[in-house]
Design brief:
Helices cover 64% and strands 0% of the residues. With 73 residues, it is mainly α. The chain is globular, with a radius of gyration of 14 Å.
Length: 73
């Protein structure tokens, strides 16, 4: 957390700091749910670009990603 605070000092602008906080939050949530953040971001960005409906946004949350991306036993 201390390293993050120091890095966030150099965001350059208030909007940059807000984006930094948002991205850090997404990465932390992915880690808490045992999801690879890079794979998660790639998949959800692809889904958004391909027109994923806003009414089904819950399907793109990290804890849902883990369930759909893990192999069925």
């Amino acid at each position: 957390v201390c390293l993050t605070r120091k890095n966030a000092l150099f965001a350059g602008h208030e909007v940059g700091a807000e984006n930094w906080a948002l991205l850090s939050s997404v990465v932390a949530t992915c880690r808490l749910n045992d999801v690879n953040p890079v794979a998660y971001l790639a998949k959800i960005l692809d889904a958004i670009i391909n027109g994923h409906p806003q009414s089904q946004i819950e399907e793109l949350l990290p804890w849902r990603f883990r369930k759909t991306s893990s192999p069925n036993p």
